Amino acid sequence: MKQSFVRLDIFRKLPKDLTEPTFCGALVSFACTVILAILCMTEVGRYLTIQTKSDMLVDISHHDDRLNINIDIVFPKMPCDVLSLDVQDVMGTHSVDISGSLFKKKITKTGEVVSQASMLEQVQNRMDLLNRVKEEISQEQGCQLKGYFEINRVPGNFHVSSHAYSDILMALMMEGYSFDFSYKINHLSFGRDEQFKIIQRRFPDQGIMNPLDGFSQLAASEQQGDKQVAKNMNSNFYLIAVPSYFTDAGGSRYQVYQLTQNSFTDYNAQQSVLMFNYELSPITVQYQQTKENFFEFIVYICAIVGGIFTVAGIVDSIIHRSVSSLFKQRIGKLS
Length: 335
Description:
Protein name: Endoplasmic reticulum-Golgi intermediate compartment protein
Distance between the termini: 54 Å
Subcellular location: Membrane
Family: Belongs to the ERGIC family.
Number of domains: 2
Radius of gyration: 36 Å
Helix content: 25-40%
Structural class: alpha+beta
Number of strands: 16
Low-confidence stretches: none
Strand content: 35-45%
Number of helices: 6
Largest sheet: 14 strands, mixed
Keywords: Membrane, Transmembrane, Transmembrane helix
Main location: membrane
């Protein structure tokens, strides 16, 4: 029974006495080992590499009727006490008391924060407010709006302006004060801030489109009497928020919105306004990290090893027979 079972061996061995090492075989073996090592290292690197694939689909997920807008906007020459942020949408919502966490930060002309207060905090006494604005102007203070607020998941707009304090501005302008609505957008994004941080850490090769980050606009000036006065400025931004889903290799899923924008600035406006009109795209972009399966990796390694040894054997056999044939021909001519 043992002898019958041994006959099934398809990997039969030759005695060492019947094999002979050759210089040509050594060269082929060395080249085979080098190529095999390079290909195996390449395959290991491919197995360890996480790839990101993208796809575009129609957005049918409406599990969340609210979304966050994160802003960080600096008005270096505008007093905080005369700035307000309003939100409107197509559902008729007009919100001044914005839900979220948004703050006004009084800053010096060098950018240092003097104090901060919630956007919801307002000075009711107009005379006190007038005196506070005068103090801010005399100290050359500006304002930074930073934080997030919530909106309905429908088209609309939000804008920063001073129209709620028109009486204060008119009184101060009659006294010779002027206001400069120059601004810089440090950051503006749609979605939860913590999701952005996770995506930036786990998808380093995939940049998120926040095209307004770092955008700045200076107010035009005109001559009034013996001094230059900043003109009113109406800046309109038209944003399209594209829902974007990111799924990492572990299966965790994160949702944010990427932005595309167009803008227009009117320097002959009646009042200074920074307006953001937004729409939500019906198309969603999905990014998914993929990694090669371990069993596929083993199959590729086996294919590399088997293929290299097979080809090396064929090459060695061809070279050996060619050299043997050439050697025999020379011996025949000499004889």
